[in-house]
Amino acid sequence: MSAFSTFLGKERRETFRTWRLWILPGITLGLALLSPVLTRLTPELLRATANSQPGVVIHVPPPTARDSYVQFMGNLDQLVIIAVIIAGAATIAAERRAGTAVLVLTKPISRAGFVVAKAISQLAVLVCATVLGVAVCIATTVALFGAGSIAPFVAAAALWLAFAAMILLLMVMLSAAMRSQAPAVGAGIGLWIGLLVFTGFPLIRDHSPAGIIAANDAALTGRDVALLWPLVTTAIAGAVFLAAAIWFFRRREL
Length: 254
Fold this sequence. Notes:
Helix content is about 80%, strand content about 0%. The protein is mainly α and about 250 residues long.
């Protein structure tokens, strides 16, 4: 067994034995369960609030399966992306701060292999968390609202996963470039907010990863959006971030 595969196995085991298991999978699964339930309860809560205020009348249409999926996608776009940023920022910076990176690199594994193994392990966690979250959300939504809008929801979740994977690789790069986790988190959140701002500019949005953000809602509502360039630029950006992470890590003292 090569040093790379051994290190990758170590990363997998650590995922199940440390806090990593609760950042992405825990949050995603929790939101997958809560989103349909909150969607179902929100009209009742609003009506209860209206009944407590004389003269106030609130008309709320009955919630649907699509509303449940929209709620979950909104949570993915905000809360889970923040979790991705926090987890990604610790990928290399935490190992370097704890001194374990030095110990690992005394083994026959290159710095490039170290970064790639870290990225693969984090991406695997992200993919598994997303798949499980989507499955749980669908099951809970079907139980509460019946089947409906499943295919558009799966398409929207797949687009979100592509965007989240790019954000994760961005954080691996920032984790390799910066001395500690906190500055990497700050920079990652700033760049993420910048992409959100770009969704308001069609020319930039339709030719950048910002288009993926806008495509999530469009996929759920059945609207056509430009996806080719956003997907291409997202893939290119992810590859560039990984290459840059290797470059930074090779040049930084441990």
